[in-house]
Predict the 3D structure of the following.
Amino acid sequence: MRRRLIDHISAEAVFHGDFTLTSGKKATYYVDLRKVSLDHRVAPLIGQVMIDLIAEVPDVVAVGGMTMGADPIAAAILHQGAARGLAYDAFVVRKEPKDHGRGKQVEGPDLEGKRVIVLEDTSTTGGSPLKAVEALRKVGAEVVAVAVVVDRDTGAREVIEAAGVPYLYAIGLADLGLA
């Protein structure tokens, strides 16, 4: 599964050129995981690979992260988990709390006192997962890890681990021939 996922990402989601990342950093390649995470052929692979990645973390109830990047990853884990008889719920973290309705920043099941994993499609600085961690802690969730599909090896791991959260990733730059 992992090898097939790497092949899809390499062929369909890695772009070469001059890019400015969300962090403002410059890069000569860009990994656009939404090109594959929203693809019917690849989303199930992402779910399976990510379930294998997080399998050793005990008692996880839900997965999710900052909308938009984490949403298809969480959905893939939810569906592939259900196919395996596993019960992972999903949640979505908004950038800001809603200014209407119930004013929620975290959408989905009640996470108070629950063990959760924050997801990210690709990581650069670690800022997005840490924003999600902060929002989840405000609703009483216990964040037990950050799990990323593709790690860009640009410092996210160090920032997230310095914040006291374990960092897991499925695919690194070397796997994609980008190291």
